[in-house]
């Protein structure tokens, strides 16, 4: 049995000799038909019978290998290996020592921190699993660091809004330790199967634009390039069933003779609603009872211009976009449960930080809890 060279290479993979076969590339190209003067090309039985001339094929075989493997001199081999490691992990501006880079004197920034080992930029993004609500968003990123040169010890998260002073939090000192993060909570943390980190950011204002920025910080204090996400929170949520009930209540209070006590009850009820629910009360009142008088006119007639003006001025607190959504015939209220980790104060530096499996230590200081998140669905539900 004759074994062709391609079959021999394939057999190396089957027998586990992958290092011998790794990097091997074979390329076959036709070289045209044999000339009649070549006696070697006409020795096959088919050629001898004159049915078909043999066609020579050139098999080119190449194998990729590191440069330093091709050098036999030990000193040259060592120098090439060190140079390759420096280019791979230290940008060619330092030497690899164990699992870190010793930077050359020229590889330091104006802040005095070493710059030869590239610091990976984390990629901040919105959660694919949970959509933002009017007061809450979930941000996530993957923890990644090279095996040599850089050791990430923390992440910095900044929240920016036009109407709020910038807030800068340390993931380790402020969030993971539970020191001061009433509006920021842990979602997912890295484990042996996933490198994902997620944070639940609460206390946000509806219909407001926020910018979130994330940096990785290494053990020298150096920051990575920031990763940014800008988002506008949805309009305030409303309970449309409750708004219909209040519209019926106001009609009953205004119907017929309205005593001073009933006027005060109607005034207190409407002032406590807030702009979104007041919009829906106005909508349902006019849908059902406009034949007895439009809502704004009835308020002025029953409560007087001053009190009616205080109530109706709340309607201007919403943006035109949210006002338009609140005119939808049907607004559904949807509830979702969100799990998070509520952490007590813990000195994370006491037990060190192992990003690949921090779950065991974190769960000693954090309790898993559930948060109810409300969403509105506008308009009639679409049939699938």
UniProtKB/TrEMBL annotation:
Residues 120-233 form the Astrotactin-1/2 Fn3 domain. One of its GO terms (cellular component) is membrane. Residues 235-327 form the Annexin-like domain. InterPro entries: Annexin-like, ASTN1_2_Fn3, Astrotactin, FN3_dom, FN3_sf. One of its GO terms (biological process) is neuron cell-cell adhesion. It comes from the Eukaryota. Pfam families: Annexin_2, ASTN1_2_fn3. This is Astrotactin 1. It comes from Acanthochromis polyacanthus.
């Amino acid at each position: 049995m004759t074994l062709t060279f391609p079959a021999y290479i394939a057999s190396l993979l089957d027998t586990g000799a992958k290092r011998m076969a790794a990097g091997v590339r074979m390329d076959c190209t036709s070289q045209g038909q044999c000339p009649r003067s070549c006696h070697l090309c006409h020795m096959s039985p088919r050629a001898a019978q004159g049915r078909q001339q043999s066609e020579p094929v050139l098999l080119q075989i190449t194998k990729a290998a590191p440069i330093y493997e091709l050098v036999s001199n030990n000193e040259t081999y060592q120098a090439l290996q060190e140079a390759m490691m420096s280019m791979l992990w230290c940008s060619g501006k330092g030497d690899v020592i164990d699992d870190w880079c010793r930077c050359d004197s020229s590889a330091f920034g104006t802040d005095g921190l070493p710059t030869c080992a590239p610091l990976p930029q984390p990629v901040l993004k919105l959660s694919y699993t949970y959509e933002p609500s009017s007061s809450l968003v979930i941000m996530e990123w993957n923890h990644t660091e090279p095996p040599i040169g850089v050791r990430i010890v923390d992440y910095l998260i900044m929240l920016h809004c036009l109407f709020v002073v910038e807030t800068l939090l340390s993931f380790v000192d402020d969030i993971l330790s539970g020191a001061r993060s009433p509006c920021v909570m842990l979602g997912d943390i890295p484990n042996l199967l996933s490198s994902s980190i997620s944070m639940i950011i609460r206390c946000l204002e509806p219909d407001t634009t926020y910018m979130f920025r994330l940096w990785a910080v290494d053990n020298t204090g150096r920051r990575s390039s920031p990763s940014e996400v800008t988002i506008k929170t949805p309009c305030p949520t409303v309970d449309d069933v409750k708004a219909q009930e209040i519209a019926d209540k106001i009609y009953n209070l205004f119907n017929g003779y309205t005593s001073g006590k009933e006027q005060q009850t109607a005034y207190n009820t409407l002032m406590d609603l807030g702009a979104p629910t007041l919009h829906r009360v106005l909508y349902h009142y006019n849908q059902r009872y406009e034949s007895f008088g439009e809502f704004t006119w009835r308020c002025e007639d029953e409560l007087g211009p001053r009190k009616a003006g205080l109530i109706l001025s709340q309607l201007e607190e919403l943006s035109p976009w949210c006002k338009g959504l609140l005119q939808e015939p049907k607004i559904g209220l949807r509830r979702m449960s969100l799990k998070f980790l509520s952490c007590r104060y813990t000195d994370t530096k006491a037990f060190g930080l192992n990003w690949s499996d921090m779950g065991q230590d974190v769960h000693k200081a954090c309790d898993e809890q559930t948060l109810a998140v409300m969403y509105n669905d506008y308009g009639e539900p679409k049939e699938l």
